[in-house]
Structure formats: structure tokens, C-alpha cells
Amino acid sequence: MLAARDIHRHFEGMHAVDGVSIEVMPERITGLIGPNGAGKSTLLAVLAGTLPASSGTIVFQGEDITRLPAYQRARRGLVRTFQLPSEFAQLTVLENLMVAAPDNRGESLLGALLGKRYWMPDETRLVAQARGLLKRFGMNAKESDYAGTLSGGQKRLVEIMRALMLRPKLLLLDEPMSGVHPSIVDEIAGYLETLRDEGLTILMVEHELHMVDRLCDPVVVMAQGKVIGQGGMAALRKQPEIVEAYLVG
Fold first, then answer.
1. pLDDT for the residue 117
2. In the chain, what are the domains?
């Protein structure tokens, strides 16, 4: 589904991503792990288009998207979340999801000119989609709550639901379990398994190795901006250089 070849990203001489090549296969959850500063989040940003690559090639569903901006990649189905929750604190949970809805007629100049009759059917459909996600993720009772009042785990769920409003083909998740209560971690993992089983492809940066064990196959290991191993977790644990760089136990 996605192939990145010889990706480099430099910051004033520092090689944050240094010649990385990976493939993301469809209908799987691919894990991306490594120590802090390995370049994982930077690579995710380059794949999503929020940071340009210094060099290299990114192909998504057969199309070279290397030079496309993030919004055009998102329209093609390549959508990301962020390491820190980025909810709109003063909007309700439902409004947070609606903000992400693509091609909302009510937000267009034509919608402003033609009025409610033009955009209301679109609005009704998108509200139904958002409420369907809220029900699915057990958040329908929070629909009218301000997003800033939610717990860390609930904010993570809002972030994932907001990404799903874009109907992604490949979802890039940056540490979705970070700062989340253990009971919610298991809940999020269950949702991700269901999404995978329904055909969604996911590339996930994660530090919780028991969740990587449960969810991810294959797994890509990065250190110092480079890929140092790929494969299943059981095989990776047998490679001394990977254990030394990152894995414990």
C-alpha cells in the first residue's frame, strides 16, 4: 500500500531520518518502534506530508506522493494522528469530529451564498457519521461535553475518531497509548484490532511493547535515524543488536 525508499530528513545538519526504506502492507498493523530520538515521529511526519523529505521517494497506492502537501495526501486516504492530543478544547466532542469532515458544503463560499438548503443534507450525513463513531467508541454520552474536560484516554479516542471522519485507507498513529490509563489502553487496542479486521491499514509508533506484541506484524525497529531491523517481535528479540539498542527482556 505504501513504499518509502531511501528517506532522509535533515535539520541543520542533524540526520533525523537517515536513508530509511519501509513498506506498509494492506490490512495489517505495522509497528514502528525504537528508543527516544530514533526518528520515528519524524518519519511519520514525512510520510504524512507535515514535514517534507530532504530526499527519497514515497509511493502510496501506486502514486508518487513525495511532493504532495499533507492535505492532498489526506484526501487520498493517508491520515495521521499526533503524539500529543490536539483536541479543540473549547469545542464539544461532536464538533471536534465535525471539524475533520472533508468537503463540508457548509464551510464553502457557495454554501454561504446558497444557504441552508444547499448544505443541510451534507451536514445531516456528517453528523450521522460522527455520532456513529461516538457510539462505536463508547463516547456517545460525551457528545456535548467540551473536549478540554476529557481524560487523556478519551482525548486519544477523539483523536482517532477525528482521523476516521476522513475515511482513511492508511492511518498513521503516533503513540496512541501514550499517557493513557491501562484500562483504556486495552480498549483502544481492541478498537484497532477491529479496524484492522475490517480492512483498515495502520502504521503505528508505539513504546508499549506488550501492545506491539499483540497488535503489530510486522514491526520496524529504528535507532539513530536508521532502520536496524524488521520482522515479527519474536524474531527481533533474538537479534542482539536490536536488544542492545532498544528491547529489554
1. 55
2. 2-87+167-245 (3.40.50.300), 89-149 (no CATH)
Residue 215 to residues 29, 163, 239: CA-CA distances in angstroms? 6, 19, 21
pTM above 0.85, yes or no: yes
Residue located via cell numbers 520496524: 220
**Number of neighbours of residue 59 by Cβ within 10 angstroms:** 15
| pLDDT tens digits for range 68-99 | 999 999 999 999 998 777 888 899 999 999 98
Q: Kindly tell me the burial class for residue 32, based on how many C-beta atoms sit within 10 Å of its own C-beta (0-12, 13-18, 19 or more).
A: buried
Nearest to 144 by CA among 92, 209, 196: 92
- pLDDT tens column, 94-123: 999 998 877 655 454 444 444 455 445 567
- Cα dist. 245→96, 142, 235 in Å? 39, 42, 15
